[in-house]
Amino acid sequence: MSDVFERFKPLAVQVLSVEADKVTPEASFADDLDADSLDLAELVMALEDEFDITVEEDELEGISTVQHALDLVSGKLPA
Amino acid sequence: MSDDSPTARTVLVTGGSRGIGLACARTLAAAGHRVAVTSSSTAVDEPGILAVKCDVTDPAQVEAAISEVEEQLGAVEVLVACAGITRDGLLVRMSEDDFAAVVDTNLTATWRVAKRVVPKMMRARWGRVIVVSSVNAYIGAAGQSNYAASKAGLIGLTRSIAREYGPRGITANVVAPGPIDTDMIASLPEATRAAMEAGVPIGRIGQPDEVAAAVAFLASDSAAYITGAVLPVDGGAGMGF
């Protein structure tokens, strides 16, 4: 889990142009990280590349915090 | 910044083996850009232009072709979508296949190629999408219900890209040629060509280079504030529409 977060963090910093210390598991994409739909689309594409996963559009429903995204990614990684 | 020569970009021209596409490829290569062309049929053997075979209606071929371009020239920064076909006929006699084939190649495949190249433009915060439509998109054309519909669709596609990715430094514009001296026109009966010329205020059929000049301008740094535009290159044929 922490490994996923460590890989997630620099991507979020780069794609969302935010300070690293703002990227916490509790952070809300919309409220704390000021991410719009274009930012999120770009972040999803970056995560797909980084973790070699595929994320379908309907899986993104309800993903509003960093923790949600980490769970989604973790659930797709080989055990 | 003492060097005032324009930045060299990686350019992909679909339908670049002949006609307007080839003219665009040559013009952009001459301007110092790294240019790749895709073509489904004719082989291209042009110095300084990377030719990749690709049927743009096949998603797997699009993926393979653009991956090859990226490997050899880097991520595509300028897309010139030129691949297009005609299957003319009267609406009342046109087959489902002839309608679908034209929309697939001209419209759906342009969407497909744009979808493949735009993510890297987003990441780079810079990109140019230039779509070659037609004056017939807005004036219509007897015998071209399929072609005109596909070319009109390209305007909506391009303007949506302009709105979605403007915040990422990507511009998207349409060039709308009138009658241009290409194989597409050469195959028409002489009387049809003469009628076309008569409908052009400038009084002649245009040259592919004249379309390429407009495309090169839209690809240039000077055109950074132009997006969602439809630029006619038609000798005045479509004025007012």
Number of separate strands of chain A? 0
Radius of gyration of chain A: 11 Å
**Biggest interface pair, residues each?**
A-B, 4 and 7 residues
Q: What's the pLDDT, averaged over the residues of chain B?
A: 94
The major beta sheet of chain A can be summarized as: none
Class inferred from helices and paired strands of chain B: alpha/beta
Strand content of chain A: under 5%
Count of individual helical segments of chain A = 3
In whole angstroms, how far apart are the ends of chain A?
11 Å
Distance from N terminus to C terminus of chain B (CA atoms, Å) equals 42 Å
Low-confidence stretches of chain A: none
Q: How many H/I helices of chain B?
A: 8
User: What would the principal axes of the Cα set say about the shape of chain A?
Assistant: globular
Please list the strands of the largest sheet of chain B in the order they lie side by side.
3-2-1-4-5-6-7
Helical content of chain B (DSSP H or I, runs of 4+): 40-55%
Task: Please give the share of residues in helix of chain A.
Answer: 40-55%
What's the helix and strand layout?
The complex is a heterodimer of chains A (79) and B (241).
Chain A: H1 2-16, H2 37-51, H3 66-76
Chain B: E1 10-14, H1 19-30, E2 34-39, E3 49-53, H2 59-73, E4 78-81, H3 96-124, E5 127-132, H4 136-139, H5 145-165, E6 170-177, H6 183-186, H7 190-198, H8 208-219, E7 230-233
Parallel strand pairs in B: 1-2, 1-4, 2-3, 4-5, 5-6, 6-7
Structure write-up:
The complex is a heterodimer of chains A (79) and B (241). Chain A is mainly alpha-helical. Chain A has helices spanning 2-16, 37-51, 66-76. The longest helix of chain A is centred in the N-terminal third of the chain and has 15 residues, at 2-16. The N and C termini of chain A lie close together (11 Å). Chain B is globular. Chain B has helices spanning 19-30, 59-73, 96-124, 136-139, 145-165, 183-186, 190-198, 208-219, and strands spanning 10-14, 34-39, 49-53, 78-81, 127-132, 170-177, 230-233. Chain B is built from eight helices and seven strands; from the N terminus they run E-H-E-E-H-E-H-E-H-H-E-H-H-H-E. Chain B has 241 residues and is α/β, with parallel strands linked by helices.
